[in-house]
Amino acid sequence: MREGHKIVTTRILHIEASPSAARSRSAETARHFLQQHRALHPDVEIETLRLWDLDLPAFDATMIEAKFAVLRAANATEEQKRHWQKAVRLARAFNAADKYVFSLPMWNFGIPYILKHYIDVVTLPGENWLWTPQEGYSGLLHGKRAALIYSSAGDYPVGLPSLDKDFQKPYMRTWLGFLGIDEILEITAAPTLASPEAVSASLARARNEAERLAERF
């Protein structure tokens, strides 16, 4: 896009949550979606973040103590400040994107634990959300967009009882909404545990949907 006389590049962060990206149905669909989007918008900048290759700091007792020591200005030690900055750097790198593409398989009806770990690290007060006594919680990432590209062994369509077992999609929608991101597109490759014909059909539907939504993104 052009801002005055300066060309401003739209930055897309693709967050890959599958450990087997080469064989991942969600990652494959996401790559197709991004290829289609780039064909329409060749000036975009796309970065792929493979969570399984990322050295995420543990969000353990040490991190929590550092968090409260720094945020409450409770005489945080230099070591605590350095420890907390690890999370802040990851959060700011996440926040810097204009758009997000998440490719994630369903694991045990929810999301892969590596993605939950990443979410816990980058979701930080003062960086991408705030709380005040007057207004409660408010997200800081308004104006950004996200595409959620799922895969799952079973199918969980709206209107059927199986939908109650799906904690993958509601969790992602809720988290992004908490950050202020409410422009969300969703693509699902499912079922992936079925006959070869059924799997091929589900992947074809996902690719078609990716092509249809690439322009809207």
UniProtKB/TrEMBL annotation:
InterPro entries: Flavodoxin_fold (IPR003680), Flavoprotein-like_sf (IPR029039), FMN-dep_NADH:Q_OxRdtase_AzoR1 (IPR050104), NADH:quinone_OxRdtase_FMN_depd (IPR023048). Its cofactor is FMN. FMN binds at residues 18, 24-26, 106-109. Signal peptide: none annotated. It catalyses: 2 a quinone + NADH + H(+) = 2 a 1,4-benzosemiquinone + NAD(+); N,N-dimethyl-1,4-phenylenediamine + anthranilate + 2 NAD(+) = 2-(4-dimethylaminophenyl)diazenylbenzoate + 2 NADH + 2 H(+). This is FMN dependent NADH:quinone oxidoreductase. Belongs to the azoreductase type 1 family. One of its GO terms (molecular function) is FMN binding. Keywords: Flavoprotein, FMN, NAD, Oxidoreductase. Pfam families: Flavodoxin_2. It comes from Variovorax gossypii. Residues 11-212 form the Flavodoxin-like fold domain. Its EC number is 1.6.5.-, 1.7.1.17. Binds 1 FMN per subunit. Homodimer. Quinone reductase that provides resistance to thiol-specific stress caused by electrophilic quinones. Also exhibits azoreductase activity. Catalyzes the reductive cleavage of the azo bond in aromatic azo compounds to the corresponding amines.
